[in-house]
Design a protein that fits this description.
This protein is mainly β and about 280 residues long. Helix content is about 0%, strand content about 45%. It contains no helices and 23 strands. Strand 11 and strand 12 form a beta hairpin.
Amino acid sequence: VKGMNCAGWDDSKYALWDFTASVSFDNVNWTVVDSVDSNTQGVVDRTIIPVFCRYIRISTDGMEINPGLASIVELEVYDLPCPNLQSLTLSSGTLSPAFEGINVFKYTALVNSNIKSVNLTSTAMDSATKVMINGAVVESGMQSQPIDIDTGCGNIITVSAVNSISHDCCEYLINVVKASSPYISSIEGLPAQFEKETVEYTFETDNNILSLKPVLEDTKAGLLLNAGAKCRKIASGTGVQILLNPGFNAFSFFTTSSIGVQSVTYKFYVTYLKE
């Protein structure tokens, strides 16, 4: 509410002294939603509990300088804020594109094959907005319960921002893409105990040729052998021979998941003990 003393009448006595704000649907039945007493300000900003209405009315006893008269320079009434999220994060993976709660409503997140579930933390833009994740209410700013995810791109999580007064709703969709396994499950012929999550091996051998057969957990995953100056693609379960030079040698297997972007590099450091 803007009174006369914000339009050139500088004395605070020209402000609306006491007034009330009322709302109505039919211009007949009115409900008081706010009141101000002993005001001296030219501009009065008030925040009320949101209500539905078609009309708004200001009632006043006038100005301190003249209780019989009153003038309002301008009356501004604002709609409910749009229910949006201020932030949205996952316990694993990064949203793409970067979160922008007002303009972008669809996101993708990539997670590794060993991730079984994710938790979401969503913060509402204002206190009138409640957060729902896959239909369950979650307190704004608090972490959700774990959400199970399967391999592939069928893990759609729906986050809803709902205005508690108007029930207007904005939905955010997150497609969590879980990578398929890029791991090697076994390497036949390796003169060392192999574990799929151990990525570096050091050993000695009396043989100048290593005959190996790597087997992938997911046979559709990519597999490259890097030995010496050569790099070549091989299929899961295919035997390969690696010629060793006297002394120190190094080679590696590089794997990539068939779904998602997870990769693993297995490194091998071999000393050939030539007699």
